[in-house]
């Protein structure tokens, strides 16, 4: 039986320059590989060692990139290793199969959202009315599924985020603050539901997951084994569970550590050897 590895991307496996956390002396910094270019500029990185580990993981297991990014944002990432057959985008709103969104899955998701939570238009209108222009830089809607704000973090009123979370909770939505983005996401829109669907399709009897943010909570809890790094929203809140290993590593080296952990678990399941990298 195959092992399914569903991993968050941003600040879990790939890192912007601001999130690298290169705290070691310059001469000891790891060599980096750029895995995303946006508007002709390098945007996201992983270590070269992590790239080799991910290539080996792709050969040994069903690797499923699992992200809150939209399809367009995901498709500009160029990960090393075999091209994944499956990818989860828009926090589970799109199940990509060979690079194309599965229409039946998307229809199931949109029907569930319409039935279980307040409409996107209501949330979007509230964000436009309530957010302070002093710290908001952009209002965005992602794939007609959820909304997010790009903010100036140093000017942001943290109490406003807490108030937004309470408002959203009463309407079946959840709020997550990640770096410079405040996400408002319907509760039924989950990475875990899409992961279970991929597990069903592939016949995987072991699921592994990693993530750093509140929006990864359901994914980590749904997997047989999970890992979270020493940075991010979950680390800030002290999130832990019996099936989740809390790693001390922070920044881009956490991504490398997570891939080693994945490979160790895959090897332990008899699904393939751990590389010597």
Verbal overview:
The chain has 277 residues and is an alpha/beta fold. The protein has helices at residues 48-60, 71-75, 103-116, 120-130, 158-169, 191-202, 217-222, 233-237, 252-268; strands spanning 3-7, 15-16, 32-38, 41-47, 62-65, 86-89, 94-97, 100-101, 136-142, 146-151, 173-178, 181-186, 206-210, 225-228, 244-246. The strands form four sheets. It has a five-stranded parallel β-sheet, sandwiched between helices. A four-stranded antiparallel β-sheet has the order 9-10-12-11. Strands 2-4-3 form a three-stranded antiparallel β-sheet. The longest helix has 17 residues, at 252-268. Residues 271-277 have low confidence and may be disordered.
Mean pLDDT: 95
Terminal Cα span: 25 Å
| Broad shape | globular
SSE succession: EEEEHEHEEEHHEEHEEHEHEHEH
- Please give the count of helices: 9
Structural class: alpha/beta
Q: Can you tell me the residue ranges where pLDDT is under 50 for at least 5 consecutive residues?
A: 271-277
Q: Major sheet: order of its strands?
A: 5-1-13-14-15
**Could you tell me the number of beta strands?**
15
Rg, rounded, reads: 18 Å
- Helical percentage: 25-40%
The largest pleated sheet is described as: 5 strands, parallel
- Strand proportion: 25-35%
């Amino acid at each position: 039986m195959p092992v399914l590895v569903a991993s968050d991307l941003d600040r879990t496996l790939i890192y912007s320059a601001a999130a690298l956390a290169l705290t070691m002396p310059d001469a000891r910094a790891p060599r980096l590989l750029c895995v995303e270019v946006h508007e002709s500029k390098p945007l996201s990185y992983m270590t070269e060692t992590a790239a080799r580990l991910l290539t080996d993981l792709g050969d040994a297991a069903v690797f499923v990139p699992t992200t809150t990014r939209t399809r367009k944002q995901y498709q500009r990432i160029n990960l090393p290793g075999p091209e994944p057959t499956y990818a989860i985008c828009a926090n589970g709103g799109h199940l990509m199969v060979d690079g194309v969104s599965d229409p039946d899955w998307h229809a199931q998701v949109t029907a569930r959202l319409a039935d279980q939570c307040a409409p996107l238009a209501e949330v979007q209108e509230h964000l436009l009315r309530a957010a302070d222009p002093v710290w908001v830089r952009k209002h965005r809607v992602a794939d007609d599924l959820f909304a997010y704000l790009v903010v100036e973090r140093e000017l942001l009123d943290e109490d406003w985020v807490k108030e937004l979370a309470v408002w959203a909770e009463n309407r079946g939505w959840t709020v997550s603050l990640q770096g410079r983005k405040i996400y408002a996401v319907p509760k039924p829109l989950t990475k875990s539901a899409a992961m279970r669907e991929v597990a069903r399709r592939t016949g995987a009897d072991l699921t592994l997951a990693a993530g750093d943010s509140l929006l990864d909570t359901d994914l980590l809890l749904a997997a047989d084994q999970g890992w979270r790094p020493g940075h991010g929203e979950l680390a800030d809140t002290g999130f832990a569970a019996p099936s989740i290993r809390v790693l001390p590593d922070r920044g881009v080296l956490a991504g490398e550590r997570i891939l080693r952990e994945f490979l160790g678990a895959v090897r332990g399941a008899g699904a393939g050897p751990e590389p010597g990298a």
